[in-house]
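User: We ran a pulldown and think these components assemble together. Before we commit to crystallization trials, I'd like a predicted model of the whole complex to look at. Sequences follow.
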Amino acid sequence: MENQTSYTDKVMELCLMAGKIMLESGAETYRVEDTMMRIAASFGIRESHSYVTPTGIIFSIEGELTKTKLIRVTERTTDLEKIAEVNSISRKISSGDLSLDEAYQSLKEIESASLQYPFWLQITAASIASGCFLIMFKGEWRDFIPAMIAGGVGLVCVTYFHRLVPIKFLAEFLAAFIIGFLSVLFVKIGFGYQLDKIIIGSVMPLVPGLLITNAVRDLMVGHLVSGLSKGAEAFLTALAIGSGIAGVLSFM
Amino acid sequence: MVIIEQLVTSFIASAGFGIIFNAPKQTLVKCGLVGMSGWIIYFIMETNGFEPVAATLAASCFISVISQVFAKMYKTPIIIFSVAGIIPLVPGGLAYDAMRNFVQNDYNSAINLVAKATMISGSIVMGLVFSEVINQIIRKSKLKCN
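Assistant: Here's a predicted model for the assembly, 398 residues in total across the polymer chains.
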């Protein structure tokens, strides 16, 4: 009996950790639920229920002693690599390649590892992407460098402000404001030419693409609460960007 | 010439988004390919006189299908591929124009543009949903066969 409880406890711990990592890295809600239940099932727990919302996980294992645990998730970032890693661990568990302790160990490693690309690379990627978006939206090549600078600065600002003020809306608003300000400045001093295209191109790295796709996928599989709340988050981000740009334009 | 320009820029932009979202290294090129194919469908349809809504629908549907194929092939979660592909289709330009009109107190054209942007976002969603439905049907029919 004692053994049985500690085993269940361990499985529960493992499932919750996997779920927490995935949710914090920005996975779809239904994928988190699915992964947790799969892991539990492959360790011989037949009845388990998970309820995941973007801000918390409730997981319960049924047996002689039914156990339920709740985990609160406050910090959400985008880290597709961690999602892929946890996914492959859960695959290995299902095929029986990983024992309970091994799986726990490797999840611990993933949780503490920082798999992010170096910050300078992210900034470079954002600036080059901004320049490319300018061309895709029928801008001219002579505006390429202004858009690159504005886009790169925008991502730096959003990361920096988010560290400073933990309110995402404000960070995005300020970043969009600075992008708009820089673009207007570039056009005023004759460095850039088409204000509209520069702003549109350089705002693109802030667009909540992951949230939109996740919201839709969650809604479609019936996770109405998560889908709607992610949709609301995406809407708020869009609103922040829009009002930041509008703030600059209204001064012109 | 224009097509090559669009192909190259959309590939780089989508792969760049892969880096921002921290996609695994070995998937970056595939992210770029997904984004490129989606954008080129949109671009060709739009320059040949199709409505932007129809072009977006076709492109997002294609992106979703190809992401599903990649996800199956490389055994990775589907969002890694679909996110980078969807981003170029987001109607940023329209939203910007709408915002500018709002600021200039021209509410009539602003609402017009907002409606257009909403239609395009809706068609992105419809494209995603559509291919999801196809995927479910294929999966179900496979289950029945076994």
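Chain A touches chain B through 49 residues (CB under 8 Å). That may be worth checking against your pulldown data before setting up trials.

User: Thanks, that helps.
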